[in-house]
From TrEMBL:
Family designation: Belongs to the heat shock protein 90 family.
Annotated spans, A: 1-332
Protein source organism: Bradyrhizobium denitrificans
Ranges of residues in domain Histidine kinase/HSP90-like ATPase: 29-188
Function: Molecular chaperone. Has ATPase activity.
Segments of this protein annotated with the region C: 548-624
Record's subunit section: Homodimer.
Keyword ATP-binding: yes
Name used for this protein in its record: Chaperone protein HtpG
């Protein structure tokens, strides 16, 4: 039985907040609402076509899926109607009352802080709700394909919406799909002009595969998009503008693509590929699901955008892969284990990476845009994609002590005499890394060091990696020996001018004081100005990785090795105070504790540290 009452519903809190922002801020690009509604209509047609493969009666004798845009100056309404899949009552409530995507809260927050949110809206795809930028009342009438009931959803923004059975007249007219009726605000009446509608459709929605019919108040309906699958056309007939338009329409994007890859694979399997790398970062890049969005089509019928057509570390790539050979009725579940799809995935991944390599060589400006936005994601491939690790390492760009956007190829070209390893340091920020004492020996020799600050860096660097036969080595690990690399002349002179403490005696003193607070005490070849630093054993994990893991409570930390600088006055003072056990203890612990602080950690016993510091400072003041 059909429920005849009108029922009021509240929007999810984020939706209300979003609508409030839409209504009260002035976005410069209100045009996007039409693109969003047309793209939803197109998705609905795609879904119908897909469901109709198994149930042809869903389309039956009815009209082929299409989209109509109907302006009415008399009623001040603009209607976007589609003969797609439609929504039943529950779907209207669920889909047009919430935003299902994670990260919505953070997005709304950013939107409220942004001056012009339209770029953000595009990144997140608020979709349907963008219609409230131009309409103060929206009525949605929908019939789910194959369904008997027709429902109406109405809202004036604000806190909620109402759902009621459609009037008899509406139910008769809407035989399948959805009509979205926008009651336009006074300042949005321009969208009733047919030339405005055509302008927007040509700019943003020309690539929609279904016919978009403009139904003017007078005269015959006419199709206003080309409705061709652009990826099926040959490269030679397409201009860069065609590609940019296709990108914007396929990826719902506002930026320009930084890379476009269009080709057709023929052979065992045939398929067309049209992929883009965006030039800006989308909002949900670091969502835990790490889902890609490349769309799978089979002979021009959309199947799914959930087929993981590329590895997760390429999830920023957008576009379409259209297969000629897969069965149309392939279920989404079957896609998981389909060997043909696995082949396609492998071949396309290889192709995307070689395209990135070429871009890096030929068009550094665009490559840099991709690396700036997605480098941290691509680096996930360094530990996930063993097979392509070398290629990805070669693609990677780093901030180093010598400059920015440095490749390992450039690094290797600048190796110092006797340098056989590639050095890096992992940490939170470039500034902190630059003042890290572990850099001192490298600096003193002019050796370049990669400064790695992306969270993912601690992970990929934990594998044993090589580039061009040179192992990558963390400066926070134990077995670094800089001795064979000559010091710069100034550093040599400076070092020789300083007195050094006796090695064996000093180490014995400090070891006796620190006991099992450290696994060992060693003389450092990496320090020139600081007194001490902590390093991991040569086979232990990088200290930064250990820190991250212990924060996540995934294992206790191992005791570090303390490295000391024999030429530092504090170390010299320990040697001199050999007879005064209390003083040697204080100074030795201070060496350990200041190294911990330089690593961004707390001393093991902060109260003891403060007491020790006060004692030493007071002694110093008294002696002065
Ligand atoms: N014309 C329509 N026909 C059928 N379902 C629709 C239609 N418009 C919207 N929907 C449903 O409402 C949901 C929410 O739409 P909305 O535009 O807010 O987000 P979306 O389309 O899922 O996301 P995005 O805009 O980022 O692609 C859609 O996922 C779809 O299920």
């Amino acid at each position: 039985m059909t429920d005849t009452a009108t029922v009021s519903h509240s929007f999810q809190a984020e939706v209300s907040e979003l609508l409030h922002l839409m209504v009260h801020s002035v976005y410069s690009e209100t045009d996007i609402f039409l693109r969003e509604l047309i793209s939803n209509a197109s998705d609905a047609c795609d879904k119908l076509r897909y469901e109709a493969i198994a149930k042809p009666e869903l389309i039956g004798e009815g009209e082929a899926p299409q989209i109509r845009v109907i302006p009415s100056k008399a009623a001040s309404t603009l209607t976007i109607a589609d003969s797609g899949i439609g929504m039943d009552r529950q779907e209207l409530i669920d889909h047009l009352g919430t935003i299902a995507r994670s990260g919505t809260k953070a997005f709304v927050q950013r939107l409220s802080e942004a001056k012009d949110g339209s770029g953000l809206i595009g990144q997140f795809g608020v979709g349907f709700y963008s219609a409230f930028m131009v309409a103060d009342r929206i009525v949605v009438i929908s019939r789910r394909a194959g369904g008997d009931e027709v429902w109406t959803w109405t809202s004036s923004g604000g806190a909620g919406f109402e759902v009621a059975p459609a009037s008899e007249e509406d139910a008769k007219r809407v035989t399948r799909g959805t009509e979205i009726v926008l009651h336009l605000k006074d300042d949005a009446k321009k969208y009733l002009e047919t030339y405005e509608i055509e302008r927007i459709v040509t700019a943003y929605s020309d690539n929609i595969q279904f016919p978009i019919m403009l139904v003017p108040e007078e005269g015959e309906p006419r199709q206003i998009n080309s409705a061709s699958a652009l990826w099926q056309r040959s490269k030679s007939e397409l201009t860069p503008e065609d590609y940019t338009k296709a990108y914007k329409s396929i990826a719902h994007a506002f930026d320009e693509p930084a890379m476009t890859l269009h080709y057709r694979a023929e052979g065992r399997y045939s398929y067309a590929v049209l992929l883009f790398a965006p030039s800006t970062k989308p909002f949900d890049l670091f969502e835990p699901a790490r889902k890609g969005k490349v769309k799978l089509y089979v002979r021009r019928v959309f199947i799914t955008d959930d087929a993981d057509l590329l590895p997760a570390y390429l999830r920023f790539v957008r576009g379409v892969i259209d297969s000629e050979d897969l069965p149309l009725n392939i279920s989404r579940e079957m896609l998981q284990n389909n060997p043909q799809l696995a082949q396609i995935r492998k071949a396309v991944t290889t192709r995307v990476i070689s395209e990135l390599e070429q871009l890096a060589e030929k068009d550094a400006a665009n490559f840099d845009k991709i690396w700036d936005s997605f480098g941290a994601v691509i680096k996930e491939g360094l530990y996930e994609d063993f097979e392509r690790r070398d290629k990805l390492l070669a693609l990677a760009r780093f901030t180093t002590t010598s400059g920015e956007k440095r490749s390992l190829k450039q690094y290797v070209e600048g190796l110092k005499e006797n340098q056989t390893e590639i050095y890096f340091l992992v940490g939170d920020s470039i500034e902190r890394l630059k003042s890290n004492p572990r850099l001192e020996a490298a600096k003193a020799r002019g050796v370049e060091v990669l400064l790695l600050t992306d969270p993912v860096d601690a992970f990929w660097t934990s594998a044993r990696l090589e580039f061009d036969g040179k192992p990558l080595k963390s400066l926070s690990q134990g077995d670094i020996n800089f001795d064979p690399i000559p010091l710069s002349e100034e550093q040599k002179a400076e070092d020789e001018a300083k007195p050094a403490a006796d090695e064996a005696d000093t180490i014995a003193l400090i070891k006796a004081s620190l006991g099992d607070h450290v696994t060992d005490v060693k003389v450092s070849t990496r320090l020139t100005t600081s007194a001490s630093c902590l390093v991991a054993g040569s086979h232990g994990p990088d200290r930064e990785l250990e820190r991250i893991l212990s924060q996540q409570a995934r294992g206790a930390r191992s005791k570090p090795i303390l490295e000391i600088n024999l030429r530092h006055p504090l170390v010299v003072a320990i040697a001199k105070a050999a007879a005064d056990k209390a003083k040697v203890d204080d100074l030795s612990f201070l060496l350990l504790e200041q190294a911990q602080i330089l690593d961004g950690e707390l001393p093991e016993d902060p109260a003891a540290f403060a007491a020790r510091l006060n004692r030493l400072v007071l002694q110093g003041v008294a002696a002065a």
